[in-house]
Write a structure and sequence with these properties.
The complex is a heterodimer of chains A (about 475) and B (about 220). Chain A is α+β, with helices and mostly antiparallel strands and about 475 residues long. In chain A, strands 11-12-10-9-7-13 form a 6-stranded mixed β-sheet, with helices on one face. In chain A, helix 3 runs antiparallel to helix 4, helix 5 packs parallel to helix 6 and helix 6 packs antiparallel against helix 7. In chain A, a hairpin with a 5-residue loop joins strand 1 and strand 2. With about 220 residues, chain B is an alpha/beta fold. In chain B, helix 2 runs parallel beside helix 3, helix 6 crosses helix 7 and helix 6 packs across helix 8. Classes of the chains: A alpha+beta (about 475), B alpha/beta (about 220).
């Protein structure tokens, strides 16, 4: 593995975990609903039943009071209390001014009707009671009630059970979600890593398939099939590239050989000049092919395998030196500010080509008699910037993206030499090296800036500057 | 020199063979990699000129096979492919130089002759002498007739490259590759500019010039006569 062993995956941001949490919430709502229904069917039912019994008892006692008065009522109450084995029934009879007459409840509420109270019984216990109080026609007060203790106990157990179920659902749901999320995240992470490797150019690499034939496997297999196809297309492209190289370059080379031979044998100067011009055209055409093939290769091929540490400072210095005579021909002042020892992980020939194309572009499209500044500076330990600035007409904002396209040329540039492939190649090489290019207005002129990620730096050379004049008027200082 | 040319394109082969013969070399031709390998493994050649894309056995595989057999005949690859890394592949296969088609014949001739004159594997000398011109690679010092000459780093590399090939024709392209690490033609006069600067420092004021221009081919460092 490129990235080492898989580290602990934070599953919070995985789809599986989010789905688990959602599922857990639904389970909790379900548990609550079930508990509610259970409560209604048990506690609710028992309470309703108790109330019915109380009403029935009240009715019987009222009738006893109507038939045989207060004495009969007292007897009835005593009889009922005597028959209540479960010790659940509650009765109380007092006079209108609250004097105890009968029952096991010595305080009778003033207000008639239903109420639930916690009252001390004569046996000394305090209990939760459901009471129905009434005023008798003779002014006595009667209360019939029931001890709710058994119902409350049932309710407590029910709530306890519901609580355990909910707790279990949370633990299982979360734990399961974490585990599932982790396993799914591991697989997707493995897939993402594989895709990164493919993207980096390891076209042979494939996504892992576990053999479980699940949807992740199917997805991986689908992507792998796509990669197979992609690789095939790449191979075809390479083949086509080779074919173009061979089938077009070879006859062109022959043509050039003949022109060269003819030029040597030419008898008069005019003829020789024409043949030389034809040969130059031939060279131009070959150059276009070379650039096109190079772009295609950079974009498609596994160039990254050949990456090594390249001293971009050296490369840039050499490029500036090589193009200095061309700048001089245009009376341009070429100044440099190149920091030493900037190392880039990349392909030397391509990086040379990239810098060369930028400098050549500045010379071609800059102002005759103007200036060009090439700078390579370290921005931080991890980043450097290469900038090429001219003071020519620049590029209109609207055109800035388009200049990187193949064969794109600004209208006014059609008269100057160049194939329109230079910047396309620059972009391809920059992309390959994870560099970014920006075009700015240098007011006047164009500033091309390439932001370069650095691998490591030569520590002893850090921040040393090499400011040199390469051509142009004597004693001119680099203008800012 | 005895040269083996492995090239399937008849016209290019004829053109190269004719030119090399005219320059006084003995040229054998092979149309594919198998014949090439057979002829080359017999030995007796000073230089191999091998097209990378030939039938039956491609040029790279042919040279790889030769090297595996212990045959170290200097080899120049010819190719229509100028792609990224193609050069590197050529060197990795055991090639000694690499020339992209199309090429000027003078370029090919200069490179073939340079390869033919290459001394067998040994440590390159660190003190170079041509006439009264001395270059110390280790001390980075140059002197002519005992008189110190100050050179810019690039001028030093240029002079070193030329002096290591004393008497050989060195083309502009070879200098761009060897001194500036440029593997494409920038179409500027950088070589000419540096040569003229070098001349001003090395040859000016001395009766015998050492840096010579070879018309239509390149440059050469040698003593006259």
């Amino acid at each position: 593995m490129v990235d080492g062993r898989p580290r602990w995956v934070v599953p919070l941001r995985t789809t599986a975990f989010r789905l688990t949490v959602l599922h857990l919430l639904l389970t909790l709502v379900g548990t609550a609903l079930l508990s509610g229904v259970l409560w209604w069917a048990t506690v609710g039912f028992a309470t309703r039943q108790a109330a019915q019994e109380i009403e029935r008892g009240m009715g019987v006692l009222m009738r006893a009071a109507a038939l045989s008065g207060s004495t009969g009522l007292v007897l009835s109450i005593d009889a009922r209390l005597g028959a209540d084995r479960a010790d659940e029934e509650v009765y109380g009879l007092t006079t209108g001014d609250g004097r105890f007459l009968a029952g096991n409840l010595d305080v009778v509420p003033d207000q008639p009707g239903w109420q639930e109270v916690t009252v001390p019984l004569v046996d000394g216990n305090a209990r939760s009671l459901l009471l129905l109080a009434a005023k008798l026609p003779d002014g006595d007060r009667l209360v019939v009630g029931r001890d709710l203790q058994p119902i409350r106990a049932l309710e407590r157990r029910l709530l306890g059970a519901a609580g355990w179920v909910a707790a279990g659902a949370v633990v299982l749901g979360l734990g399961g979600g974490l585990l599932i999320g982790r396993s799914v995240a591991r697989r997707t992470l493995a897939m993402t890593r594989s895709l990164t490797r493919v993207e980096r150019g390891e076209l042979d690499h494939r996504l892992p398939v576990t053999g479980r034939a699940d949807e992740v496997d199917r997805l991986a297999a689908g992507v792998n099939a796509m990669l197979d196809r992609l690789q095939q297309v790449m191979a075809t492209l390479r083949q086509v590239t080779d074919d173009i190289a061979h089938d077009l370059r070879t006859p062109l080379s022959r043509l050039r050989q003949r022109l060269e031979a003819a030029e040597e044998d030419a008898t008069d100067e005019v003829q020789a000049e024409r043949l030389r011009a034809a040969k130059d055209e031939c060279d131009e055409l070959l150059e276009v092919f070379r650039s096109l093939l190079q772009i295609a290769q950079v974009e498609a091929e596994q160039v990254r395998e050949r990456f090594a540490d390249v001293d971009l400072s050296q490369v840039t210095t050499a490029v500036v030196e090589v193009y200095a005579p061309a700048a001089e021909e245009h009376d341009m002042r070429l100044t440099t500010a190149i920091a030493d020892g900037i190392l880039v992980h990349g392909e030397r020939a391509l990086l040379t080509q990239m810098v060369a194309n930028l400098v050549q572009n500045a010379i071609r499209h800059g102002r005759d008699g103007g200036r060009i500044e090439v700078a390579l500076q370290r921005d931080s330990a991890a980043r450097a910037t290469l900038s090429v600035v001219d003071d020519g007409p620049g590029i209109p904002v609207a055109e800035r993206d388009r200049v990187f396209r193949r064969f794109h040329r600004l209208d006014r540039a059609r008269s100057s030499p160049g194939s329109g492939l230079g910047l396309a190649l620059v972009r391809a090489v920059a992309d390959l090296h994870q560099m970014t290019i920006t075009l700015d207005d240098a007011a006047p002129g164009l500033r091309v800036r390439v932001t370069i990620p650095l691998t490591r730096t030569a520590p002893q050379a850090a921040n040393r500057l090499d400011r040199r004049r390469l051509s142009g008027t004597p004693d001119a200082l680099p203008s800012i | 020199m005895k040269i083996l040319l492995v090239e399937d394109d008849a016209e290019t082969a004829a053109y190269v063979a004719k030119g090399l013969s005219e320059a006084g070399h003995l040229v054998d031709r092979a149309g594919d990699g198998q014949d090439g390998l057979f002829l080359a493994s017999d030995g007796g050649y000073d230089v191999l000129v091998v097209d990378r894309m030939v039938p039956k056995l491609d040029g790279l595989a042919m040279v790889r096979a030769l090297r595996a057999m212990g045959n170290e005949t200097p080899t120049l690859f010819l190719t229509a492919r100028a792609g990224v890394g193609d050069r590197v592949e050529g060197f990795e296969a055991g090639g000694d130089d690499y020339l992209v088609k199309p090429f000027a014949f003078a370029e090919l001739l200069a490179r073939v002759q340079a390869l033919g004159r290459r001394p067998p594997l040994q440590a390159p000398p660190t003190l170079l002498k041509v006439g009264d011109l001395e270059l110390d690679v280790v001390k980075r010092a140059v002197a002519r007739n005992g008189q110190r000459i100050d050179l810019q780093p690039r001028e030093f590399r240029l002079l070193e490259y030329l002096m290591r090939r004393e008497g050989e024709v060195v083309t502009r392209t070879m200098l761009l590759e060897g001194v500036w690490d440029f593997h494409f033609d920038p179409k500027t006069s950088v070589v000419e500019t540096h040569i003229s600067r070098l001349r001003a420092k090395v040859d000016r004021g001395f009766p015998e010039p050492l840096i010579h221009t070879v018309r239509g081919a390149g440059y050469c460092v040698r003593r006259d006569g």
